[in-house]
Structures are given as C-alpha cells and as structure tokens.
Write a structure and sequence with these properties.
- By secondary structure, this protein is of the alpha/beta class.
- It folds into 2 domains: about 180 residues, Spore Coat Polysaccharide Biosynthesis Protein SpsA, Chain A; about 90 residues.
- Helices cover about 40% and strands about 20% of the residues.
- The protein is built from 10 helices and 9 strands.
- Strands 1, 2, 3, 4, 5, 6, 7, 8 and 9 form a 9-stranded mixed β-sheet that branches.
- Strand 1, helix 1 and strand 2 form a beta-alpha-beta unit.
- The protein starts with 5 loop residues before the first strand and ends with a helix.
C-alpha cells in the first residue's frame, strides 16, 4: 500500500460531539493524502467515526491519559509526517498544506494557533535550533506541530499534563524547527472536564518537569523562573499557599528581575493579613539578597 503523506493522530476521551467537529476539520483539508488515527482512551462509549477510509479507530483497553494515547497513535502511524489534534480543537483547511511548506525548511514545522473566537492569538516565532529558549514561555501546541516520522520521540507517560513541555525539551536538542507565519490551529474554549489534565495534574506535571530536567533549569534561569512561576500560580489557585510561596520565591531567586518580581507580586495575593506580612518579609529578604549580589 502507498504510504500516506501525513498521519494525523487524534486523541479522545468521552467527547463525541467535539470529536465529530475535530474530525470534520481534518476531512476538510485541502491536502487530502493523510490517514487520521483516532485513539480512544477507553471511553465509556466508543466513538462513532465518519465513514471515510482514511479515518481509523484504535481503542485502548484502559485509560492512560493523553501521553499514552499519543504513543498508541505513534505505534499505528504509517505516514511520512506526524501531526496531532486534540479532540476539542480544530484544524483550518490549509493546516497540512502549511506543514508541507515548513517541512521543506526543517524537520519540524510549526504554524500559529489561536482561539476559535480569535480573542487570543499565539504568534511564537521559532526557527532553527530552539533548545535554549524552548521553555522560556509557553511551548508550541502539539496541534500546531508537524514533524518527519523518523524524527519523532515518544511521550513520557508519567505526565498526565504538560507532557508537551517535556517532549519539546527533549526533541529540540537535535532537531531544528521552522515556523510558518500563518494560523493553522484553532483552540476551543469550553467548560468541559479536562480528563486527567486539570489544575492538580498540571501542578504535578510542572514539578516533575522541573525535577526531571533539573540540569537544564540550572543552566537556564529564565526557563526555571517561568516554570516555577507557573507552578506557584497554579498552586495558589488550588489553595496550596505553602507551595505557592516556595515556588514563587524560587522563581525570583533564579531570575531576580523587575519583570519577574512584578509577576510574583501580581500572582500571589494572600487572603489574610498574617500571610500578607509573611510574604512581604519574603519579598524584602529576597530583594536585599538579589540587589546585594
């Protein structure tokens, strides 16, 4: 059989209506040479797929999360190039055409992503070797990423959230990227449950990322500050003020800039006067240490 140009790996769990729209956006592609591998992560009710021979269902026997589902998709992919789609997001019709243009320039091609309602746009401009800057801000969405099949890496299944950050850090060591200056991926905002990808999972994933790649974060203080800030903000939202204070203080120590300090102050606003006094003490101590050095 002829090898398809693209393998589109769609991971899904118990969101049949959103999945139908996601698959419709794949079938509407202007580049028609693809296989679409739908990995159902042991949903209570298996999904019903379109009657298109390019769409294939792979059902997992047990629920393992999105990293495990993506690995299952990689096991079944036969395309020359690999790309991903979450079941609650969408491709624009030219998504795969854009990827081909980028892949002519680098083994990994990126496009820009935005919310469906266009309220927020992400115009990350990453080209060449990006290993030293890849974690300085939010990493590119996997749905905006396409890569040569021989270059792909498997996902670390310990991460139920933020496996994309770990994956990007590993793959960017040796593989350059090219960003196409077009929007190709649409992110949907909705109130549905994020199965195994909620705020507690993101806190655990962030801490695992910082531990697993401790050497990288030691030599990249900007990235370290970014991810400790993320950890602190999430911890505060969950009411874990002790972890929030430790994370945000660590971020400031790693990168004691006015911008970092400003973000810390905006992010941590304790609800009691006792906590306020405690945090003000932390700010004072860290500021003295920072500016003294």
């Amino acid at each position: 059989m002829t090898r398809p140009t693209f393998s589109v790996i769609v991971t899904s769990y118990n969101r049949p209506a959103l999945l139908r729209e996601a698959l419709a956006s794949v079938l509407a592609q202007t580049h028609p040479d693809f296989e679409c591998i739908v990995v159902d992560d042991a949903s209570p009710t298996p999904p019903v797929l379109p009657s298109d021979p390019r769409v294939k269902l792979v059902s997992r026997a047990c629920n393992g999360g999105s990293a495990a589902s993506r690995n299952t998709g990689l096991d079944h992919a036969t395309g020359q190039y690999i790309t991903f789609l979450d079941d609650d997001d969408l491709f624009v019709p030219e998504r795969l055409e854009l990827a081909l243009e980028g892949l002519a320039r680098a083994p990994i091609a990126l496009c820009w992503s935005r919310f469906v309602d266009q309220s927020v746009r992400r115009k990350l401009m990453l080209r060449g070797n990006v290993h030293d800057i890849i974690l300085n801000q939010g990493v590119p969405s996997l749905g905006a990423t396409t890569l040569r099949a021989e270059c792909t890496l498997r996902f670390d299944e310990r991460f139920f959230a933020l496996q994309d950050a770990d994956w990007w850090l590993r793959i960017s060591r040796d593989t350059p990227v090219w960003t196409m200056e077009h929007f190709g991926y649409l992110v949907r905002k909705h109130p549905g449950v994020r199965h195994r990808n909620d705020a507690p999972a993101k806190v655990r994933g962030s801490l695992l990322l910082l531990k697993k790649h401790a050497g990288y974060f030691t030599s990249h203080p900007r990235a370290a500050a970014e991810w400790w800030i993320r950890t602190g903000v999430l911890a505060r939202r969950l009411g874990d003020y002790a972890l929030a204070r430790r994370a945000l203080a660590t971020a400031f120590r790693r990168r004691p800039t006015l911008r970092t300090l400003s973000r810390l102050i905006r992010s941590l606003r304790p609800s009691t006067s006792r906590l306020s006094l405690e945090v003000m003490g932390i700010w004072s101590s860290l500021s003295l240490l920072s500016f003294a050095s």
